[in-house]
């Protein structure tokens, strides 16, 4: 049941417990309880809105940075990852398999701001061996949503 | 065009065609099309786009040069896949060589079936409300449509008792379309068995339009042809439009007794030749790999269905729970308006489009068809607007009644 509730909420955070209960044919109070419990347990972390910032006219710059680090005894990558993800400029951090270790998404107001953050903060951290910065030029699809595809319904207005 | 004086085009038009009523909602359609900001619950097709892997299969086939005619019956692999599908899903065994033909949507299959079996004067039993094409096609083929009304009291199912009242010595064909457009009604196994008994008793032939078979929310899909003794008496019509969100591809099929099929293919080969190869290739991909897509879409329709039924009831409209297709068919009698008045006023006041029930036959008066093949966000907004509208009109009616006393 939790999975079904989560699937609905993931696609539409505006649904309330009553609507979800009706859609899943479950008792309302049970759904409300489960949602509250999942919020408590930090399964539901936040109700998020996916925004096309470019369309909103905001000048945001983002970069994906491949970071190579030296893992430390006992704590592996977690320690250094923690050092990185605490910076508010950092939007997400993933541990990767392959030719580098951490993938870091950094967001800033300008190219310069992001570049400065990388060269002065990220690259100078102890245990960071190297960084490769890839600026994001265009977002085509994010979280399963195609940005350019939000066109009007192409169907006839009435069809018997 | 310059019209030569004295030329009367009307004189050349077949009187049967001339007397066919034009679509009952033409004027309303224009009204909807010319209003801005409308949320339409009047669309009888999925809001999903055809799944990408199906579209891609078509693109690839075009790249490889699949642009020619196919066999009149359709490409053999597709007929084979349809036979397998009918076997797996309904337990029906058909010979893909002699019993299955691919058509231009289920619509062509209905036309072929009726033209193949109707003798002038034969009566065709048509449960109503129903999809708009059965009656005109029957008339064009020289048949006599006999409409059998279904009611909300029976959850818009066709009952054997009611059907029997309309059977005469000239009855020859029964058209079944369940899950039903516009009501969303389905037939239970026992209801189908009772109908099958009548079909045998009166030696009828059944044309079963099962285009919505996959969209069923009360259990696995059923085919009328799978009932004992019914396969030979049933011309089974179906297609890919609704289940796979493939309306624009125009691919359907018919499965029937070899003699019926041999007769139907004669008309098909002279009028159509074959269904377009691109659509056939896409349909093959749909049958081979599209099952998860169907399940996903059906699950989503089901969620919306519950929401819409619940909202309509909350706002004070009587609404039976539909168990198939993607329509709800609430009664609007409580508002004191006719179906057409309701639909027009709803469009003008709240910019929500629904289809007035009488578009599907006179027994649809007092009802409207709302399609929930619309995104959840739009549906919720449409329900909000309808709630306001209904509240206003119920209050108005309440005042009017109080005044009369």
Describe it.
The complex is a heterodimer of chains A (160) and B (405). In chain A, α2 packs across α3 (28-40). In chain A, 15% of the residues are buried. The model of chain A has no long low-confidence stretch (mean pLDDT 93). In chain A, the strands form 2 sheets. In chain A, strands 2-3-1-4 form a 4-stranded antiparallel sheet. Chain A has a two-stranded antiparallel sheet with strand order 5-6. Chain A starts with a helix and ends in a 14-residue tail after the last strand. Chain A is of the alpha+beta class. The longest helix of chain A has 13 residues, at 28-40. Chain A has helices spanning 2-11, 17-24, 28-40, 78-85, 111-122, and strands at 61-69, 90-95, 102-108, 128-135, 141-142, 145-146. Chain B is of the alpha/beta class and 405 residues long. Chain B is 42% helix and 12% strand. Chain B has helices at residues 15-19, 26-33, 52-63, 76-90, 105-117, 134-140, 160-166, 189-201, 258-271, 277-289, 291-314, 339-350, 376-404; strands spanning 39-40, 100-103, 123-128, 144-149, 171-176, 205-209, 234-239, 252-255, 327-328, 352-353, 355-356, 368-371. In chain B, α8 (189-201) links the parallel β5 and β6. Chain B starts with 14 loop residues before the first helix and ends with a helix.
């Amino acid at each position: 049941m939790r999975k079904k509730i989560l699937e609905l909420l993931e696609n539409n955070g505006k649904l309330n417990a009553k609507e979800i209960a009706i859609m899943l044919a479950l008792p309302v109070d049970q759904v409300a309880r489960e949602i509250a419990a999942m919020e408590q347990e930090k399964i539901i972390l936040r109700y998020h809105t996916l925004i096309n910032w470019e369309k909103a006219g905001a000048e945001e710059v983002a970069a994906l940075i491949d970071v190579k680090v030296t893992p430390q005894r006992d704590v592996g990558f977690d320690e250094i990852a923690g050092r990185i993800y605490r910076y508010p400029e950092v939007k997400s951090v993933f541990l990767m398999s392959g030719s580098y270790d951490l993938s870091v998404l950094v967001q800033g107001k300008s190219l310069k701001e992001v570049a400065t953050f990388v060269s002065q903060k990220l690259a100078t951290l102890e245990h960071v061996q190297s960084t490769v910065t890839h600026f994001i030029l265009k977002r085509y699809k994010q979280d399963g949503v195609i940005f350019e595809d939000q066109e009007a319904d192409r169907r006839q207005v009435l069809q018997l | 065009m310059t019209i030569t004086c004295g030329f009367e085009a009307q004189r050349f038009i077949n009187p049967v065609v001339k007397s066919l009523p034009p679509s009952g909602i033409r004027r309303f359609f224009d009204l909807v099309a010319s209003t801005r900001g409308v949320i339409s619950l009047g669309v009888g097709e999925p809001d999903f786009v055809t799944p990408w892997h199906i579209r891609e299969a078509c693109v690839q086939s075009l790249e490889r040069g699949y642009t020619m005619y196919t066999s009149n019956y359709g490409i053999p692999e597709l007929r084979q896949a349809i036979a397998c599908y009918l076997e797996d899903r309904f337990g029906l065994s058909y010979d893909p060589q002699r019993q299955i033909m691919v058509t231009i949507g289920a619509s062509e299959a209905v036309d072929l079936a009726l033209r193949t079996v109707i003798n002038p004067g034969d009566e065709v039993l048509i449960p109503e409300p129903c999809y708009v094409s059965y009656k005109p096609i029957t008339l064009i083929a020289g048949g006599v449509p006999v409409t059998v009304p279904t009611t909300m009291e029976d959850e818009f199912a066709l009952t054997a008792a009611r059907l029997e009242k309309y059977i005469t010595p000239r009855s020859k064909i029964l058209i079944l379309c369940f899950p039903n457009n516009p009501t969303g009604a389905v037939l239970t196994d026992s209801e189908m068995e009772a109908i099958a008994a009548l079909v045998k008793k009166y030696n009828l032939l059944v044309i079963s339009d099962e285009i919505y078979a996959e969209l069923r929310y009360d259990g696995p899909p059923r085919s009328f042809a799978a009932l004992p003794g019914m396969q030979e008496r049933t011309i089974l019509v179906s297609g890919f439009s609704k289940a796979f969100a493939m309306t624009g591809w125009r691919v359907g099929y018919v499965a029937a007794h070899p003699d019926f099929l041999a007769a139907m293919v004669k008309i098909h080969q002279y009028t159509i030749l074959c269904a377009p190869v691109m659509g056939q290739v896409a349909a093959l991909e749909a049958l081979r790999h599209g099952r998860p897509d169907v399940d996903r879409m059906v699950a989503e329709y089901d969620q919306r269905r519950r929401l819409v039924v619940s909202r309509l009831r909350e706002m004070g409209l009587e609404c039976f729970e539909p168990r198939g297709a993607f329509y709800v068919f609430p009664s609007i009698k409580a508002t004191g308006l006719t179906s057409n008045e309701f639909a027009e006023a709803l469009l003008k006041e709240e910019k929500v489009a629904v289809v007035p029930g009488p578009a599907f036959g006179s027994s649809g008066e007092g009802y409207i068809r709302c399609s929930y093949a619309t995104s959840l966000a739009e549906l919720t907004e449409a329900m909000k607007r309808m709630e306001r509208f209904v509240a206003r009109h119920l209050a108005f009616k309440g005042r009017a009644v109080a005044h009369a006393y």
